[in-house]
Q: What sequence folds into this?
């Protein structure tokens, strides 16, 4: 099976489709492929992802966990961080942190509904999962 045969699909409820559009255009550096008054669809090749947003404020769930974008090396992480922070506010930044049994460099960013995204570079797998309060978003 080649990489092009499958794409992961996620659907997320949001409270304000226009704020969501502005945030995700910047995060993904892409335009939606479909847009309706209460709906957005981004279809990304890198990463292979179809992500849709439905404006249903009463169904927004902030504490479902988090979403992430893995980059392949430290240089790409640095580039993504520089590009994203030009237009969006970064949250916690972590270097050589242990999270999900992996040592990672990462930064966090939250969308308009509070959904947390980690953008990270995997350094190595480890046997320790850090549970410090500042790592609360982890795992």
A:
């Amino acid at each position: 099976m080649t990489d092009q045969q499958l794409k992961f699909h996620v659907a997320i409820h949001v409270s304000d489709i226009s704020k969501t559009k502005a945030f995700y255009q910047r995060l993904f550096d892409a335009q939606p492929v479909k847009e309706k008054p209460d709906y957005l669809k981004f279809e990304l090749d890198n990463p292979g992802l179809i992500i849709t947003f439905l404006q249903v404020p009463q169904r927004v769930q902030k504490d479902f966990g988090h979403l992430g974008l893995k980059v392949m090396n430290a240089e790409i992480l640095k580039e993504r961080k520089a590009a994203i922070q030009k237009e969006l506010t970064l949250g916690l930044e972590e270097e050589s942190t242990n999270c999900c049994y992996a040592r990672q460099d990462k930064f966090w960013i939250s969308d308009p509904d509070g959904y947390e995204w980690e953008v990270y570079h995997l350094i190595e797998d480890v046997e320790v999962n850090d549970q410090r309060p500042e790592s609360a978003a982890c795992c």
